[in-house]
Amino acid sequence: MGNDARVKDLFKSIGKDTPRADAVDKVKGTARFGADIHQAGMLHARLLGSEHAHAQIVSIDYAEAEQLPGVKAIVTGEDFPKADMSGIGPWINDNMARGKVLYHGQTVAAVAATSVAVAEAALALIKVEYKPLPVLTTAEAAMADDAPLLHDHLEKPPASNVYATENISEGDIAAGFAEADIILEEDFSAPTAHQGYIEPPACLAEFQQDNVSTIWTTTQGHFIVRANVARTLGLELSQLKVIPSEIGGGFGGKGSPYIEAITLLLAKKSGQPVKCVMRREEVFRRTGPGSAFQGHYKIGAKNDGTLTAFQADFSFDSGAFPGAPLHGGMDTIFRCYRIPNVEVNGAAVLTNKPMVRAYRGPGGPQVTLGTEVLMNELAKKLNMDPIALRQQNAVTKGDPGSVGEFREIGFEACLEAARESEHYRSEVKPGQARAVAAAYWHNGGGPSSVAVHMNSDGTANLLTGAVDLSGTRTTLAMIAAERMGVSVDRIHASVGDTESTGYNFVTGGSRTVNVGGQAVTMAVDDVLRQLAERAASGWNITPDRIVWDQGEAVNPDNEERLSIAAICRKAPYTGGTISSTASLSVPSDISPSFAVHICDIEVDKETGRSQVTRYTVVQDAGCAVHPKMVEGQFQGGAVQGIGWALNEEYVYNNNGVLENPAFLDYRIPLASDLPMIETIIVEVANPLHPYGVRGVGEAGVIPPLAAVASAITNATGALMTNLPCSPSNVWQAIQNQSQN
Hints:
The protein has 20 helices and 26 strands. The chain is α+β, with helices and mostly antiparallel strands. Among the domains are: 5-31 and 445-586, Aldehyde Oxidoreductase, domain 4, CATH 3.30.365.10; 390-439 and 592-739, Aldehyde Oxidoreductase, domain 4. It is globular.
């Protein structure tokens, strides 16, 4: 537990538990989240959802609603401009139906009024006539030969609701299984799951006909919001500014917009600012959860534990529009192990449900369920320690990765740390069982931009376009302080809007501190270059001779020193204020993280109730810039994965209506449900980052589905392959096992 002394002792700022920059505001309640944004004269928006999961819209009559006092604007899908959507088709505006509805609750009309109550009353006066169509609630049903097509343009041969497929084929799969002494084969499934963010989507929009319109919103990517809304409404990017608020959780679910285009269109039509805040039921019915999954797995190995072959066919339920994490699943499914013969086929399928969004390591938890459960079952068949089996087959430096060969990676170090941990070496308590699971996550890349502006007192303002989900303002400030040789309190980091800073990709995929941190070092290095030039000009030496020591420029000829503050104080008279910007784009898949989880569980065989009694997360952080926040990421991912494994699922009836659209019925883990999640931070430096950083937000959510399922299997003797492991499902599996 805790941080490796190598990192902690090597740096002045990095590796220390610096107070979070946003902590005081959030504790005091003064931080402004999406619903806290107000404008004088603003209207309130409410959304009318479809009562059908699949139906033609015959007509929408809102004449009576328009006459209600206080109603200022009503829009439907027909009010959206029919802009050129080449290459996108009807996908772009997934939350406002046009022509037909594709999931229950999809917005068919929206009202802006002087109060929420008036807007609600107006919704009740809108009359919508539907012609119901057949409803597809599962990917299996949607892939049937006689399944109705959700989108007209899919009628082109070959007509199918399968909108995307991917394949991995390596070696000779038939020969690989022929070489195997043991072959295991099973079907697996995982349900649709909500990210569990507490703050509902909320935004405020102000339209300016001849100027720049503005949207204030809670989002993981305000540049993504700007691009989507601008294209949906036929605006130039320069005509729209998006300002991100503080965000009350996202985990991938707020990586793309829901209500922003509708709200801005209402603002345009009404001529007044409009605010829209989703209610909890709407969040469940209309926003994008994590994708449901089903797959068939087959794995082969020799008697000595060497893996010979791996085969899988799986599908992701995408909901009514493309969004399934197919590539993430394909990239993750067997990446932890050296397997010479592989055949994997994946599909993304449209169904009559809301379009799915990312959920922390998107695709990874689902596909890893089958891989890791079979690895545990294989270890039993071979009478091998499950970690030893993984160590024998673990990928290492030089092995093929998703992009070229792996560089320095920490999987072997994680396995060893797990095997030598106090948890794994301890005796399993009577009545309990233990299991392990491992995971790979590629870590995201993409573009990031930052700006560093020096003040006359030597302090610095660091401006980033990356939304702060988990304290990244603090960690980026720590990297800047380390690079500059000053204390962290000399750096003030903030998140800029789409006009004040360069383009940044969405905050997600464990990319922000990795890619953003590299941009910070580039900008700070340029600032130091300018500072050196100013100091050198006064000493009549060349800038390359300047030595930096603890934030001071040193003249090597006479040891004279100049503080950054002293240089900045004279900057207006020696060439102007010192500042710098930096932008870069980093490929994904080149700085991966690995994790190993250990789960102890107790199962009441009479009721099927399962209780996690001990849990340890081992993960490679590369360099733990802020150890406490890293541990928090490990723990948070584990808790979400445990919830997905044990209880969480969207329950739809045959008509495509979600039956548990609230946290009362969709139950996420409470503190009382779990033990303290133990953490072990491994630090195998990422060679492509100046401080060795790897992302830490994704890998932690991937192993729990398999770790929990395997632990329950070990406790009951009933193989758990279909999640969630709810009491009723576990009890039924036990009954089925006893009858066989």
